Each structure stands twice: as structure tokens, then as C-alpha cells.
Input
Amino acid sequence: MKKTILTLFWATLSMLVMAQGMADDPDRRYATDLLKTGTEVPDFQMKTLDGKKFKLSKLRGHYVVLDFWASWCPDCRKDIPNLLRMYNRFHGKGVEFVGVSFDDNATAWQEAVRKYNIPYTQVSELKKWKETAVSPLYGVKWIPSLYLIDPEGKVVLSTVVSDKVEAKLYELTVTPSSPIGTKENIWIDGSKGRLRAVIQKPNLSQGQQCPMVMFCHGFGGSKEGPLFEITADSLCAHGIASIRFDFNGHGESEGDFQQMTVPNEIEDAKKVYEYVRDLRYVSDIAIVGHSQGGVVAAMTAGDLGDEAFKAVVLLAPAAVLRDDAIRGNTMGKTYNPLDPPEFVELWGGKRLGRDYIKSAFYLPIYETAAKYHGPALIIHGTADHVVPYTYGERFHQQWPNSEWELLDGLDHGFAPNVYRADQLTSDFLVKELK
Output
């Protein structure tokens, strides 16, 4: 019953965040006339930069990313790094890229391609946007507009958001069809009862060791979900083990959600650390935390010191939770912060306890985290309406050995491109642990 109620609570909270994301989704405004999924794309013929004829249908048999842009378009220029990253990652997997320019000035078009070192095929009618034949064929009324086309020439995705294309490409070409490594479900004694955890590790020979990464989920979340599971798969493929666990009162772990506080989640994290530290096959340990789990990870690293963790990754760390408690407003539920009630009713029958509010009110988040001096990566999205990115930026400012990644347009859960956060996290941890 507890798992069912918590699942309902988290689903409700996720729906609220998703609803905010949908309201902010540029596709709802700018992609309404683009060809819909499943539509066979019209063929076209244009000239390339060097004057050769190019016909789209010649790319049948491949996935194709079609990018409508122009050198004079600021949003297009801003999106070029995303397209280049996609090209570098997916072209070797058989994905073709084609840029369709609405430039009518050949020199400006050529200079832009040269300036940004765009390696993929570029074509243009060299006419003003509204005079082109291709624009009405594809319903392009905003640039950049992008299509992902399947090998049969049908639309997989049409959007004005390049991150959606990248996420779909990951799903089509990278996501493993079978589990990576081995998985083991275990119990660990925590601060308020037993914690349910899953260890995923690469296949090791007798006596071989590997690094281990601890994952700390957010408020109302669990060890399950694409953000941690995708990253765990990526790490395992690079010979790095991981442990995902449910904090007390969450998921499959024991405990009462109403008794959950950030300090007792820190104690949970320390118990998990002690467990993995004593595993014979574990060499170095790193810790990753999302949202409230990011606060737990940062403070745990500060408490245990530099010798405990080889690296730390914070994903949208929710240090705002202290300010929320001081304001008397947590997850949109208001209360008197100087005299909090026994509990605050949340969604799905869940209750936020008085101890959570009182401990959050005085929680020394940044002061404790400052005691960690090792390598760190902080990732945040500009479209995060749950935790403003400035809270993540402050961790970067106080940690001299940290790296900072601000992802344009991504929300608190890194939608619409969770794979971007996964790749950054995996690359950083592989660099620091291998």
C-alpha cells in the first residue's frame, strides 16, 4: 500500500512539473504546421554549397535529421552547437544530417557554414523564405525547425526543439536492448529501517576491482526512473558499478514518509556508503544526487570528507528547500514556518512532517558542502521551475574544483532530453574514476 500511495504522489508531482513543461514547450506554438509523425516526407531537389544537385530521396535507408535554418537567424545560430554534437555522436551510427538554408545570399550562407565548421550536407534554393518551394511542403513557419525521418522516408519527429531530436536519436540508436552487467537487489540498514537497493556491476574476474557510484534520488522519488537507470547502464558499460537505493519512507524502503528529513536521508546515505566501502570488489566511490538527493549528496560529501568520495555530481540540487521552509511554502503547500503543524498534507495522501520543516529551516547546506574539495560536476537546466538554476550555480562558485553545465531549455527532470544529463554525468565520472 505504501508503495502504491508514494507512486501516486510522485506521479501527481511529475504531472504538475510536466504540465508546466508543456506550457513552456515551444512546439505548442511554433510546430503546429509541421508534418505529423508517420507522414511520408515530400522529396525535394536543391543545390549544395558547391553547386551540385542533391535529392533527399537518395538518403532512403538511413535515419535523416533535416534542419531548416538560415545564417541570419539568431536562434538557428544558437542551436548549431546542438546540431554539431548530434552529428558527432550519431553520424557514425548511420544517421545522415542535412541543413536546408533559407538564405538568399550565397556568400552569407557559405561564410556561416565555414565559421561554424558545419560538416554535414547543406542545400538551399537561395530564395527568400516565403518564396521557397520547400517551406510550404514541410509546413515550416519558424526556424530552426527539425525533422527526424526514418529509413522509409516517414516522419519520426517534427519539432522546433533540437533536444527532442537528440533524445529520440538516443532512444533509437543507443538505448541497450538487454541489461548491461549484473543486477542484485539487496537490503541495507538505514536511519529509519531497511533501505531497498539495487547494485549493478560489470562482469569482473576473480579479485578484480572497479569503482562504485552511489545514486541519491529526490524528494518523493525513488531509485527507479530513466535518469539514474540510463546513467547506471552507461557507467556499467565503462566498467563502473553503481548502487541505486530508496531513502527511508520512499519506494520499497521501510520507514514513514512523514518522518523523513534531509538529516536522516544523509544518515541513510552514510549507511549506504559504509556498505559499499566494505565490498571487496569496490575501489573508489563517487556520489550522484538529483534534486533533494543533490543536497544530500553534497552534504554527505562535506561530512565524510575528501577521502570518502573520488567525485561528486549534483543534478539540479534543491538547495531551495531551506528557503522554501523559511517562506513556509513547500511544493505549493503553505504553513507557518515559525510554528509548523504536525504535518502538511501533500498529494496522494502523503504528509510532510514537522521535523522536516524544522530541520530544513536551519539546514547548513552550503556550509556543510563547502568542506568537500574534490572534483565535482553540477548540472542544471534553465527551464527548471522547481529549483532555479542559481542554487546549482552557487555550489559551483564555492567548489573550486567543480565544473558547471547549464543546459538551455531543460527542466527539473532534464526533459525533453534526459540523455544529455546522462552523457555529461557518465563522461565526467568515467574521466574521474577510470
In short: Confidence is low (pLDDT under 50) at residues 1-21. The two ends are 42 Å apart (CA to CA).
